[in-house]
């Protein structure tokens, strides 16, 4: 039901999309663990200027972006998905999976009141969740097989229990209300049902912003040629499928961010234009995107686990509580 709603909303309301390539795996999270190298592993897309201390849009624009829209210097990250082979050598059990496609959808543009503010940051999802009880339904966390019939009885945020004929896909929805001064966020609500919300469907002091949605596809056919039945041999760096979450720091050129809201009568897909071009013509960068801080942190799963364990207290508790509290 959630998937059908999301697809219908995307078709009925103004939206745009930029596809963004992966450029690194790394155990940093500048929103939750600024300046530290103790996070679980993340997959990073967008501006390669990001490092453990990044906090501003201007910093991101100093880098090379892997976004297909040349005006998008934002950085997007999610916990890395791993193929888990329990019979492999002790330090080789987890193999990172590169997404086949990462798409950042910007939806409900005809309802947005303000563009993304400079330096805006947001988190969606709960990195400490281990079951549906730990989820906020507003996040829309969903795992499914693209193009296949919905699996009857499956929790939306659970991995599929049988082989995907095409791609494993996941969706994450971000808040679409924000205070431009404090960056406090919320999900829009019907004011008829939620008295604390105004006519713009946001809490007092907040304005509607474009609704960001991550859509990520993984092609598992080469990794799991025989498919699977039951629990797949997969795990996120933070745990099982329920800990899925996403992070975002705005790096759009201001002119392009404003272009998203230029025509509030639009009710369909359109390409965003800006100083560096339009649509999906490709990155304006002339070099390959790389880790801007290779001397710190790691892309190795086992090393990241050791780094987390060196934190005071339980690694899982420390990392996950910090992540879930960042913007909720």
Automatic annotation (TrEMBL):
It holds the Pfam family DUF1996. Residues 307-321 have a biased composition (Polar residues). InterPro entries: DUF1996. Residues 29-252 form the DUF1996 domain. Residues 280-328 are annotated as: Disordered. It comes from the Eukaryota. This is DUF1996 domain-containing protein. The lineage of its organism: Eukaryota, Fungi, Dikarya, Ascomycota, Pezizomycotina.
């Amino acid at each position: 039901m959630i998937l059908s709603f999301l697809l219908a909303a995307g078709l009925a309301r103004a939206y745009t999309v930029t596809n963004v390539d992966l450029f690194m795996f790394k155990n940093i999270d500048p929103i939750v663990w600024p300046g530290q190298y103790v996070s679980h592993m993340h997959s990073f897309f967008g501006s390669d200027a990001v490092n453990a201390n990044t906090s501003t849009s201007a910093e991101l624009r100093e880098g090379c972006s892997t976004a297909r829209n040349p005006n998008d210097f934002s950085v997007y990250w999610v916990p890395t998905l791993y193929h888990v082979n329990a019979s492999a050598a002790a330090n080789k059990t987890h193999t990172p999976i590169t997404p086949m496609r990462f798409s950042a959808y910007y939806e409900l543009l005809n309802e947005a009141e303000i563009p993304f503010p400079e330096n805006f940051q947001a988190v969606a999802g709960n990195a400490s969740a281990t079951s549906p009880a730990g989820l906020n339904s507003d996040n829309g966390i969903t795992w499914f097989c693209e193009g296949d019939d919905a699996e009857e009885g499956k929790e939306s945020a659970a991995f599929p229990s049988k082989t995907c004929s095409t791609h494993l896909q996941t969706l994450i929805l971000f808040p679409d209300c924000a205070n431009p001064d404090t960056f406090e966020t919320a999900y829009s609500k019907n004011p008829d049902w939620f008295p604390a919300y105004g006519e713009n469907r946001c809490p007092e002091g907040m304005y509607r912003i474009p609704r960001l949605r991550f859509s990520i596809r993984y092609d598992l056919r080469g990794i799991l040629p025989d498919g699977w039945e039951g629990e797949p041999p997969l795990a996120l760096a933070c745990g099982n499928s329920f800990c899925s979450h996403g992070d975002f720091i705005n790096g759009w050129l201001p002119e392009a961010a404003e272009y998203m809201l230029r025509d509030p009568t639009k009710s369909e897909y359109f390409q965003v234009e800006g100083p560096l071009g339009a649509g999906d013509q490709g990155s304006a960068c002339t070099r390959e995107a790389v880790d801007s801080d290779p001397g710190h942190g790691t892309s190795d799963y086992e090393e990241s686990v050791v780094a987390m364990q060196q934190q005071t207290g339980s690694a899982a508790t420390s990392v996950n509580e910090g992540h879930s509290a960042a913007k909720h």
